[in-house]
Amino acid sequence: MIYLERKDEISLKLTRELGQAPEHRLDMYLFVPGELDLSPQTLPEQEFYLLGLHVKRTYSSLAQLAPLVQSRLISRAAGQSVRPDPKYRLSLSLYAYQYANALEAATRQLRNSDEVSREEVGELLELTATILKRLRRNTPKEESLSRYHVNIDNYLSWLTEQQLLALAMKLPFQDDQQDLRELLIKVAKREHRHREEKEYNSSRINDDSARMSNKMRLLRRLLEYPVTFKRKSVELGGGEQKAVKALVTAIVMTAVSFFVFESRLLLGDITAIFLLVVAVAYAARELFKDDLRQKLWAWLRKGRPKWKHTYIDVNSEQPVGRSLEWFDYKAFRDLPDDIRKARKGNSPQRGETVLHYRNDSRMLPARFLSGYAETRESIILDLDVLMRLMNPSTHKVFKLEQDEIVEELVDKRYTLNLVVRDVEGDGRVVLQRWKIIMNYKRILDVELAN
Q1: In terms of Cα–Cα distance, which of 55, 152, 138 is closest to 99?
Q2: Distances (CA, A) of 328 to 28, 34, 169, 349, 400
Q3: Same domain, 311 and 443
Q4: Which residue, among 14, 10, 6, 9, has the nearest Cα to 419 in the 3D structure?
Q5: Cα torsion at 200, 203, 208, 211 (round to 10°)?
Q6: 297 and 314, same domain (yes or no)
């Protein structure tokens, strides 16, 4: 399953569950309006790849409570003054990470539903209460582990409060469902009170939303670190690029040397004309050498991967997978038939610029942590690199309101289309398209297109 959501005002977050299949291929096509004049000259491929794409892979599991069993045993051992198991932090992080993802997925599903289900809201509140209660029941006595437990509990409490308040504000409650809204607010208040009673955060942080948000962002990174794979990256073609440079230099220098030699035979003694010919020859060398090298390099690398990544488990330090990545500009006529069909573009839209990102990966589940056979991939698409090309001007729109003419200033908006195709090792294909509405300052809306 693939999800796309707005991460903040300038970036999107694409999440896909990779399941147990070891091999996957992802193709992502971003259709940019032609009026932005996007091209390799205005925004080189490598610049967009390095600044606009951020990929992360983590463990994933449907067994939400599996890590809790181990954490209970370790907590009990710590309470008996036994040397604490070094895997405690890992177990606790796994448990918290599973809860955080499950909560975010459940609230996202509720927000996307057309009507509020009393049973779904009740089940969500019951599960959050049960899981948090079990987490807080097993506080280790060892100081370093206790501090880690406090950080995890602090973040999960804040996340639960934020998700429930978002539901209370955004869900379309009917008149006879206002008690559900009040219940969501009540549970959110209870979590806020829990953090105050435990004195997890100072009064300055509690009174400043920006400080609180930044602290929780750091705690989320602390939580995710043990379950996130390290990624070692290598840009491919370095040796080939040196060989191409050497070959082009040899060819050009041979041609120039031959031209100078022939000129010497033709003109005889060294004269002003001969020196002028030599100067022209060397100027031509500098003029054509770089162009020839770039064209030859582009021809050799066309259609081949540009980056190779190795995923490493931070706990065992063993490689658990690898991926190859492509990123380039595409002409609309060169797109696969299913991608063109999914775009559903008409003739004016043929002027769009198409950016293509491809990711081929192969994981090694036998090297995963015990109890885990699946992974989740998150791709952050930072559109700030495109916002720089957008027109910041506004224009006037006139309309009638009760026979009065009203003038309204509106900013220029752009519609981008994102088509994603995910192919698993068994050949199963998932194809989805989203519309992204944005202006030069922020992303306004993201909607799944039919």
Answers
A1: 152
A2: 11, 17, 41, 19, 47
A3: yes
A4: 14
A5: -40
A6: no
Q: What is the mean pLDDT of residues 185-201?
A: 93
Residue 179 is predicted with a pLDDT of: 84
Rounded to 5°, the CA angle 418-419-422 comes to 130
Which residue is listed with tokens 């027109």? 391
Q: What pLDDT is stored for residue 63 in this prediction?
A: 55
Last residue of a domain, one of 208, 227, 246: 227
pLDDT grade for 301, boundaries at 50, 70 and 90: low
350: nearest Cα among 372, 367, 334? 334
Q: Which is nearest to 110 in space by CA: 158, 181, 52?
A: 181
| 284 and 342 part of one domain | no
Q: Are 72 and 54 contained in the same domain?
A: no
pLDDT score, position 287 = 67
Full residue range of the structural domain in which residue 147 is found: 66-227
194 shares a domain with 147: yes
> Taking Cα atoms as reference points, which of 236, 233, 234 lies closest to residue 300?
236
User: How many other CB atoms are found less than 10 A from the CB of residue 405?
Assistant: 8
Angle between helices 118-137 and 88-112 (to 10 degrees): 170
Residues 323 and 407 in one domain: yes
Q: In whole angstroms, what is the distance from residue 20 CA to residue 61 CA? A: 10
37-84 tens-digit pLDDT: 899 889 998 899 999 999 999 887 665 444 443 444 344 444 443 444
Q: What is the DSSP letter of 82?
A: P
Which three-class secondary structure string do you get for 105-155?
Answer: HHHHHHHHCCCCCHHHHHHHHHHHHHHHHHHHHCCCCCHHHHHHHHHHHHH
Please give the tally of structural domains in the chain: 3
The DSSP H or E segment spanning 79 is helix 66-79
Q: Are residues 114 and 216 in the same domain?
A: yes
- Residues 53 and 70 placed together within one structural domain of the fold: no
Of 173, 197, 227, the domain-final residue: 227
Q: What is the pLDDT of residues 92-131, one digit of tens each?
A: 888 888 888 888 888 888 887 778 788 888 888 888 888 8
